[in-house]
Specification:
single chain; about 25% strand; Nucleotidyltransferase, domain 5; 2 domains; six-stranded mixed β-sheet
Length: about 325
Amino acid sequence: MSEFVIFDMEWNMGYQPRVFQYQGIDQTLRGEIIQIGAVKLKDGKTVDRFSLTMKPRIFPKLHYRVAKVTGLTQADLDRGVPIKEGLQRFIDWCGPQAALGEWGLDDVPVLKQNLVLCGLDEAWPRRWYDLQRVFTSQRPRQEGEGMTLEAVVERLGIPKNDAFHDALSDAEYTAAVCGFLDLEKGLAEYPGEEQQLKELLCPPDRDRRDFACWPGYLDGEAWSTSETLRGAACPQCGQPLALDAEDIWLRKGNNCLYSMGHCAQHGPAMIWLRRMRLDGLHFTFARATEPADDAMQAKWAKEKKAAQERARRRKEKEAAEAAALAMERVRNAGR
């Protein structure tokens, strides 16, 4: 491994959500960057540092929660470098081909959204890594162990000489944690987005087959209507599955959908869809199928019935509310 940048950011948020358009699609802004800290490693040793506080323009007023966590003040932000200039300085310091590492997967999506809003190249960085994942792959988490940066620093006995939630301090703490790892090996083995989706969608204890992946979607709800994403094949013979006649798809968490399909030759099969959005701008979807045994069919029938009942009650409630509103309008018109 040659040069590698470990970075951390703090960002401000508004008191109301803010939506912006990216390639014609509405996106919700996660936050506006107000501080960046980074260390540059070469052959595992720190060779340079970067620290900058920036003046936001979309959320110019420092949110009280951000102030409480970071210790920053409104005066700090007001004295900061304009955000576009600050981001360009960070890009120049890192270099166009830099590989970035962060603790978790929160900072890069915010960074890329802010690059869009500042008219800078959101394709940068092209490579980034979750160093928490690298850590847990080499030092598996034990029951009861926290995985916040502070908890790991304490567990490793790293001196806590600086405050957490300062961007440069957190970047330096992360670099210190990486000193306990074979970082070069961890980065070499790091899975890409498709492999991460496959690990989530096709765990070793399930007989899920025919994994397929589609990157580059802007609409996170594309799976609701896309024939490409839903058009699964039988996991045993490869013939197209007939989808549930009522087109029922159920959610498992925020990022997974599943339904039941049917093969004329081999019978029912579960269809699983999952999405991932590592860069904060584009969704990648993946699909796999699984032969459905009697237990899975019974569970699906029960879940489907419950979902239909919830939908019926919701529709009745909406109809009742609409009728009450219409009646209120009639009464008001007669006064």
